[in-house]
Structure prediction request, 193 residues.
Amino acid sequence: VQFQIAIERTVNELVVNHLIDNTACPFDNVALFNAGSHVNDRTSGNPPSITENQAMRLLLAQQTIPGDSLEAGLTFDFALYGSTNINAAELQYLPAYRVVPASQTDVNQFTGRVEPIYEPLLSAGDPIWYAGSRSPMVVGILYSFLAGSGPGGRRVTYFDPATQCQSFDYYVEAGSALVNYQPYARNAGSGAS
Prediction:
């Protein structure tokens, strides 16, 4: 079971590394997050808050369909963050923390609508967090398995007569690739607590 969990974590790491490493996009050779070309990098950001969420939602909403100037209609579906932003994110997104607003500007339209995803692979000391869309209109990062492999890997079991032991070997043949930058936005998250 531990080997199968390790395989799942390895596949997850393949995907998350595209965000952390700011992989270059295959069609324009520009880094995934780029404030100029891709307009999806909020370098003056802060931890998740109503103001930051609105800015991230706008970055996603204004992304265009690849090869066109028409907006793709992407929604802010999930926030991905490390432990540095775990408290701020839960207060912003989990319905359990819904607070009655004192005024219209205090309305948190993201509570219960954005899925908070704590990702341990994002460093505890790194305040950066990400916004993402699950819209089927534009594919962001893909991962796949070779034939014969899949989630949990491929298990080969055999009995070794010399040791009188049943042995289990696990193999995984997987890969990931960045396809489009549009479904993701990055926030510097400086000043996180």
In short: The first strand starts at residue 41 and ends at 42. The mean pLDDT is 90. The CA atoms of residues 79 and 131 lie 5 Å apart. The chain is about 20% helix and 20% strand.
